[in-house]
């Protein structure tokens, strides 16, 4: 099976092409962007196009939480490239991809939402926390983050590879089932 995994949310967006679980291609941006800089399809498309082959069986993408624009750009690119083709689709939670990227380290994954709000995954529960709550969590735990989090582990190679590894453990859906997860109400319990 050929799987194209795409990350449009981290500071280093890009893609990784897998064949039967092995990486056969990688294109990751070497020009990091902050969470609040707008991304565009023009930036992401050349990276993904360099990996595109006709016989892709499935596509995986980070669907949030994360940058509203990053999520929309990634989903639009995937739907545009694969519309009309019968490929499996995997929507991967950004926090799960962060956890996978830093495994086996025992860290708390964090995604910055706004300048003063963050999503964290604590004991498999996603919570929206304030700056003071994040500081308290960080004083007791190691953090891995997308966004501006002092002292957090960085992700210099983006999340595409981790997204692919997680997708291989999931059941594929259809492109129409790929939904963004950027609404606060979706996550806060």
Brief sketch in words of this structure:
The protein contains six helices and nine strands.
- Gap between N and C termini: 37 Å
Which architecture would the CATH scheme give at its second level? 2-Layer Sandwich
Structural class: alpha/beta
Which oligomeric state applies? single chain
> Could you state the CATH homologous superfamily?
ATPase, nucleotide binding domain
**How many helical stretches?**
6
Q: Structurally, how many domains make up the residues?
A: 1
**CATH domain class:** Alpha Beta
What proportion of the residues is helical, as a percent range? Answer: 25-40%
Mean model confidence by pLDDT: 87
The succession of helices and strands, N to C, reads EEEHEHEHEEEHEHH
CATH fold-level name: Nucleotidyltransferase, domain 5
Largest sheet: 5 strands, mixed
Structure commentary:
By secondary structure, this protein is α/β, with parallel strands linked by helices. It has helices spanning 41-49, 68-82, 94-102, 131-140, 160-167, 184-187, and strands at 2-7, 14-19, 22-28, 58-64, 88-93, 107-114, 117-122, 125-130, 142-146. α3 packs across α5 (160-167). The chain is globular and about 50 Å long.
